Amino acid sequence: MIFGVLGNPRKKDIPGVLQELKRSAGEIEIYYSEELKDLVPGGTGDQVLPLEEVVRRADVLFSLGGDGTFLKAARFSRGKPIVGINLGGLGFLNFFSPDQIPEVVNRLKRGEFYIEKRDALLALRSEKDEKFFALNDVSITITGSSRMIEIVVEADGELMSRYRADGIIVSTPTGSTAYNLAAGGPVVHPDVDAIIVTPICAHILSIRPVLLPSSTVVNITVRVKGEEKLMISADGQQQSMLVSGEKVSVRVDKGAVSMVKFEDTPGFFEILRKKLCWG
């Protein structure tokens, strides 16, 4: 087994976490992503490589940071299993704490784990051959202006809605507790095969979030007046400016992300109760 490690170097606890991971791994070979080059435990012979190469060589990826770091790991993972060690705030995607690292590594060595597959999203621009990958969500918003944008949404080619709003979010069930939730969208269990379309402050009160089958291809056409600029964002990390009148197609990438879990890993509703203070 080979470990690949990426993390957020700005987290104050990460030097100690890297040391503990190295101690727990023992003879297991570890490759570190370049952002950790100044923090890697010395004298180990382990290599610091570009993230793409770390992923190519690793059997299991460790994500050290908050949910943003996990989203980055997911985008580059190529389906490799990811262990999320939470060094951030809410940590919906990181199931383990730093003090669990020895136990996590020992269970990996013994094969006492299972893989939970999560759907992701793939978005494609009509004006350019540019693709976007998101575990949580793809959003389209206006930048540098308080004006609304005109949005036309189609589901498998059928007109679903036409309205003016501040933007639109297309989310996976995994991402339903992120931007979607903040915009008034529903919480959806990650086992549900669905895609969520949520308007951002629509100018029509009857416009509400819609759950669609995960097989649906969602086409979104956006228009602005004047020189305002539109931006597409995937998980808040992969971003690009859009042209007014451009169409964006979004579909589900089934089981694209693999998350490492154990039989006693907290369930979805236990995490919700803890993170969202549901009692």
TrEMBL record:
Enzyme type, top EC level: transferase
Designated name of the protein: NAD kinase
The protein's Enzyme Commission number: 2.7.1.23
Substrates-to-products reaction catalysed: NAD(+) + ATP = ADP + NADP(+) + H(+)
Organism of this sequence: candidate division WOR-3 bacterium
Subcellular location: Cytoplasm
GN (gene name): nadK
Positions of the catalytic residues: D67 (proton acceptor)
Keyword Transferase set for record: yes
Chief subcellular location: cytoplasm
GO biological process: NAD+ metabolic process; NADP+ biosynthetic process
Role this protein plays: Involved in the regulation of the intracellular balance of NAD and NADP, and is a key enzyme in the biosynthesis of NADP. Catalyzes specifically the phosphorylation on 2'-hydroxyl of the adenosine moiety of NAD to yield NADP.
Top-level taxonomic group: Bacteria
Record GO terms (molecular function): ATP binding; metal ion binding; NAD binding; NAD+ kinase activity
